[in-house]
Amino acid sequence: MSWEITDFEKKQKNTLQGLFAVEIDGMKIKGWSVRSKDGDRWVNPPATAFKKDDGTTGYAKIVYIEEKVRWHKFQDWALSEIDKLAPATADPVQGDDRSLF
User: Fold this and answer.
1) Nearest to 32 by CA among 2, 8, 51, 15
2) pLDDT tens for residues 59-89?
3) Can you name the CATH fold of 3-89?
4) 47 phi, psi to nearest 5 deg
5) Tens of pLDDT along 14-61?
6) Which of 17, 21, 33, 67 has its CA 20 to 30 A from that of 85?
């Protein structure tokens, strides 16, 4: 199975560092974001906004990995691939290089 980060667009606003897509064997999933705050970096999956009962906006993930170990491996892989595409978004301290699955 082939995984690839595509369509990376550097965009900085608040915690947002950029937007990208994940392509898995020809299927492209758009709407991912890479974020950073207080030295931590992470990726967010595509989500759809909805109005909560209290009137605030909530976000429901459209794509997610339920198993925490696999989710963390995916995060590490995605950040590493993004750093290759856009080194300026890279954190000086890199995570380990565990395999994705």
Assistant:
1) 8
2) 999 998 999 999 999 999 999 999 998 766 6
3) Arylsulfatase, C-terminal domain (3.30.1120)
4) -145, 160
5) 999 999 999 999 999 999 999 999 999 999 999 999 999 999 999 999
6) 67
Domain residue spans of the chain:
3-89
- List C-alpha distances in Å: 27 to 30, 54, 81: 10, 37, 18
- The structure tokens listed for 35 are 């974020």
3-state SS, 20-47, equals EEEEECCEEEEEEEEEEECCEEEEECCE
Q: How far is CA 79 from the centre of its chain?
A: 7
Residues 6+ apart with CB under 8 A from 22: 3, 4, 5, 6, 28, 29, 32, 78
**64 in Cβ contact with 48 (< 8 Å):** no
Q: What is the pTM of this model?
A: 0.79
